[in-house]
Amino acid sequence: MPVIDRIYIDGAFVEPHGSELFDLFNPATATVIAQVKLGDEEDARRAIAAAKKAFPASSRTTKQERIDMLRQLHDVVLADAERLAEISIEEYGAPVARAAWTARYAADAFLHAAKTLEDYPLARQIGTAEVVMEPVGVVGLITPWNNNYGFICSKLSMAIAAGCTAVIKPSEMSALQTQALTECLHRAGLPAGVFNIVTGRGDVVGAEFTANPDVAKISFTGSTTVGKSIIRAGAETMKRVTLELGGKSPTLTLDDADLAAAIPHVISAGFANSGQACINGTRVLVPEDRIVEFNTLIKQAVEKIKVGDPRDPSTAIGPLVSRKQFERVERYIATGIAEGAELLVGGEGLPDGVTGGYFVKPTVFTGVTSDMTIAREEIFGPVIAVLTYRTEEEAIEIANDTVYGLQSYVISSNPEHARTVAARIQSGRVVINGAPHEPLAPFGGFKQSGLGREYGVFGLEAYLEPKAILGGQPA
Ligand code: NAD
User: Does 278 participate in catalysis according to the annotation?
Assistant: First the structure.
């Protein structure tokens, strides 16, 4: 059984002080494929010390030096994209197309950060003051399992663009992906200590990052519950935080939508990443007088979705990441039935033809009302709740009737109409008619979906502190 028994500190692969062995699974077969030796608080402190030591030099790097590092990081990740994708199929169960997307996302993050930095003024004159943007310090980057190495790259890219040094706590469930990524990043030849990676438990390594006075900022992607605990724990040392948390995104099909054309958008928003994406559009709002047509179309389409072996290119939905997630999603499906929602397609139990692994049937409930658990809570699996509305006013009210506000989807045959509705939705992003991702636009949540933004200028500024210098300018 392979054992990952190295963490990455001060430019070297070193043995962790921690000794707990943690099983890593292939979720498509529910078998243990490797183990990882988890780091502990002492490892976290060693990593922080290395990042602290590297910070003064890093903070003084020029824009061009940072851009060169980012390009180098892009190249090494791109060179290993196939291997990274392969490992994320094995360890996470990502279907091949998703796995390839993640590898590209990871490599491209460094180029997007380089471009953002290139165009960004790190010093400017405001009135009589010279305002310089300084790196915030050592940053703690904490990632979840649903895009572990992709998020490591997007967070690290902005940290480096800003001149920060980083300590990284990846998901403990993604250690094979982390190991492969670390090997790539090491090849970029960055100065020792600029980034350090300690796989360990959240309440051990993550908690140490959050409490340690030598860490200036935490950028965290994960659940809203843990996000709140990070704000509380970080308050003592006044940590800056960027929190990318959960969602319960609405997909509004407006009364002028061509429903046949809308269905692929509804499905891709709802089931992307096998339903394990914070941005999944899981509450679908349909005009009451078109619900019969909508239900017929979505049922037909979902029945055709291929669930199963993530290595099969025709598979759209792979397994959930773990037994815990599988059981959680099954429980939500049972709750939906118990609360009186109508099961249109899918339901409890393994999909037809699947005999093992953490697979869930893509499921659509109709006749859902806003007070039902499946309309309120993030399920994090391929489960869509369909709700109806009578007026557009009511649709907007339902869309905003959530503690979350990460991303929303609007589908309409009239772009202007869609934009008027988009203007009234409380979420960090609104996607009209399946528009593609814009990597330089801000990403993040309103309300309990998070704090702050990632990507582009807004993402870069989250790693910078403005300093105003008054006086002393050359005459
Ligand atoms: P999680 O919050 O349990 O874990 C996320 C990370 O935080 C892991 O690395 C974990 O070890 C660590 N962690 C756990 N307890 C900690 C603590 N006390 N202090 C510091 N770190 C701690 O989330 P998860 O189950 O891994 O991921 C699923 C959740 O992530 C979902 O709610 C999903 O919506 C959210 N998510 C959000 C985004 C986004 O960008 N908004 C993206 C992906 C996932």
Answer: yes
pTM comes to 0.98
CB 374 within 8 A of CB 275: no
Residue identifier of the C-alpha nearest atom 30 of ligand 1: 222
CATH superfamily of 3-245+449-470: Aldehyde Dehydrogenase; Chain A, domain 1 (3.40.605.10)
Q: Which of 164, 278, 330, 461 is the catalytic position?
A: 278
Residue range 26-55, pLDDT digits in tens: 999 999 999 999 999 999 999 999 999 999
Pocket test for ligand 1, best of 178, 226, 408 (most atoms within 8 A of CB): 226
Question: CA-CA distance, 286 to 248, in Å (whole number)?
Answer: 16
**Per CATH, domain 250-439 is 3.40.309.10:** yes
What's the token pair of residue 55? Answer: 């910070």
The string of pLDDT tens digits covering residues 153-174 is 999 999 999 999 999 999 999 9
Q: Where in the chain is the domain with CATH 3.40.605.10?
A: 3-245+449-470
Q: Do residues 18 and 37 touch, judged by C-beta distance below 8 A?
A: yes
Q: List residues near ligand 1 (CB under 6 A).
A: 142-146, 169, 171-172, 202-203, 206-207, 210, 221-223, 226, 229-230, 244-247, 278, 378, 380, 406, 450
Q: How many angstroms separate the CA atoms of 335 and 14, rounded?
A: 46
Q: Where in the chain is the domain with CATH 3.40.309.10?
A: 250-439
The tens digit of pLDDT for each residue in 371-423 reads 999 999 999 999 999 999 999 999 999 999 999 999 999 999 999 999 999 99
